[in-house]
Amino acid sequence: MESGSGLITFVTDRWKGAVAAVIGLLALSAVIAGYSAWNSSKEVNAGVLLRKAVSRLEANSQTGQDTTKQEEGVRSLQEVMSRYAQSAAAVEATLRLGTLYYTGGKYDEARSVYTAYLSKNPRGRIAFSAGIGVGDTYLAQRNYAKAVDTYSRLIEQFSQEPLLPEAHLHLARAYLGMNRLKDAGAVYEKLVAAHPNTGWARSAQGELYRLSLTSR
């Protein structure tokens, strides 16, 4: 049991450090596609406001913790999302704000950002990524049951999503958190069979190997 608990802690802690990058990569192509459609003055204005927000947040990260700059950046992101909700800038602002809250340990706030997007855009450009974000906040809070439910519904709703294996990896991690090692193993095995010779399969194989060590 101790070895199983150690595996769970190792996997979930290692995973938490990479979540922000994963969410950004999942939605990158969607955001780029959205920018190609920018041709109205509103979308140009949204882009200008987004760049101001990013500039403030980057200045904060470079000079250390500057509460004023961070608050200004957050307010600008929120303004983009409210005033220009249908723009590509609002999509990026959603991801940036959710990720900012997540990496700062503000999981409830991050989840609110993602769920607000999903309530208005259940099949939007970043609906899948936002869904992953919701599940990740639950996982970070060790609310494994809700994480499993979130990832499972996401897999069902987006069965044709090219990046669906990410949801399976996250689902398996949630199962590990619940000490449901067999369920986690089954997810990894399914992933390896469905997506051989991919980075996802290699990750799953590595986790399967670690699981096999706990059973010895």
UniProtKB/TrEMBL annotation:
Sorted UniProt keywords: Membrane, TPR repeat, Transmembrane, Transmembrane helix
Residues making up the signal peptide according to the UniProt record: none
Pfam families annotated for this entry? TPR_16
SUPFAM superfamilies given for it? TPR-like (SSF48452)
Keyword Cell inner membrane in record: no
Write out the transmembrane intervals: 18-38
TPR repeat copies, ranges: 91-124, 165-198
Entry annotated with the keyword Chaperone: no
Top-rank taxon of the source lineage equals Bacteria
Under what name is this protein listed?
Uncharacterized protein
